[in-house]
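Re: Re: ligand-bound prediction request (bumping)

Still looking for help on this. To restate: I need the protein modeled with flavin-adenine dinucleotide bound, output as structure tokens. Inputs repeated here so nobody has to scroll up.
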Amino acid sequence: MRLSYDEATEAFRAEFVDWVEHNLPPAEERTEPVLSSAHLPDWARAWQRRMFDAGWLVPGWPPEYGGRNATPVQQLVYFEEIARRQIPRGFNPQGLSIITPSILDFGTDEQKQRYALPTLRGEISFCLGMSEPDAGSDLAGLRTRAELQGDQFVVNGQKVWTSGAHHADYCFCFVRTNPDVPKHQGISVLIIDMSTPGISVRPLAMLTDPNEADFNEVFFTDVVVPAENLVGELNHGWSIAGGSLAHERGMLWISSATALERDIDQLIQTAIRPGADGRRLADDPVFSSGLARAYMEAQAMKFMGYRGFAKFARGMESPEHSILKLYGSELGRRLALETTEALWPLSLDLDAAPLTVHGDDPTPWPTKYLISFANTIAGGTSEIQHNIIAERILGLPRR
Ligand SMILES: Cc1cc2nc3c(=O)[nH]c(=O)nc-3n(C[C@H](O)[C@H](O)[C@H](O)COP(=O)(O)OP(=O)(O)OC[C@H]3O[C@@H](n4cnc5c(N)ncnc54)[C@H](O)[C@@H]3O)c2cc1C
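Reply:
Sorry for the wait, this slipped through. Here it is.
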């Protein structure tokens, strides 16, 4: 079997790559760091705007929303190139990949103009207010209360793990608007201006660097939100939640499959070169067999991804995404752990030395290992993926 794309698809890929080569600002203009998932330095705003104007920001969408009506296969090769070349895109990932599509699906025309388009153009950024201290996997248990009083809502409660909330302009916030009905039926979505009085944001220290913060706790005390900021119908927020997360799942697997392939490629190059102490990683049989296993599993994952994609592109159900999410995140974690262990027994001591391998990616492997846990939690934990696979794919009874 030969897996390849047809000429027209390869021409589409070449057009994108050529455009990036002529338009991506050079590295020396991209030095101002991106501080969180809702922070856009000036160069990032300008680059996102350029992608939007050229129809390369979300190619599957129509030109007025930063796309070019690309087919599913064209979108796949686009994401392949984004991941393979590590092209910066989506500085506000929640805004771009979850919230904007939800506003386009459920919002009013005014909300599309006022919030979705400026987010796409990199003018404003959003955070996603779903999780709460007692509502993560069981999102429907959320308790942040919004009471409708005349033409405004009054919001009280707390969110947690809110990525980028300390930089975001707005929050796409899931709130309880009716506590007296079954929990899925009393949820609504509000767009909340983060500068409204009564909101306080407390960044949470990161495991990888206590001086950096992406997650936050967000507290709402009598926060007044205009009723026109309700997205979709009152008490119908649960269907928005399902739609929002489905947008996130779309083509995530290709990024994680490509990132794994890139890591494994770099590790192979590193393993065959003697290090500073003359030692070659390739001579370590435990590391070599672990790397061979990771290579096989990454290949299996990639081909399962293509299989799921082929079904999706034909409009069929593709339950593979839960398997890919579980497999990709757990494999990434295992690879990072085995590499960290092989590189240096003391490598979990982050202050001791930056244990990078040769290649473009400057992230030390111990840091990659610590970061790798995030993917096993965000977007549905590994345990929840196991439940989904057991119940929806294997048809086992619900527990
Ligand atoms: C990198 C990252 C970014 C995030 N960004 C955001 C954000 O921007 N906005 C936002 O709202 N949230 C965000 N989150 C939060 C994320 O959605 C939650 O962490 C996730 O849904 C899990 O919820 P929880 O942390 O409350 O864990 P819990 O749901 O309390 O789970 C705790 C443990 O119990 C297990 N468990 C729970 N229920 C079951 C079950 N039924 N069966 C078996 N095991 C179970 C879980 O797998 C987990 O191991 C982010 C998380 C990460 C890691």
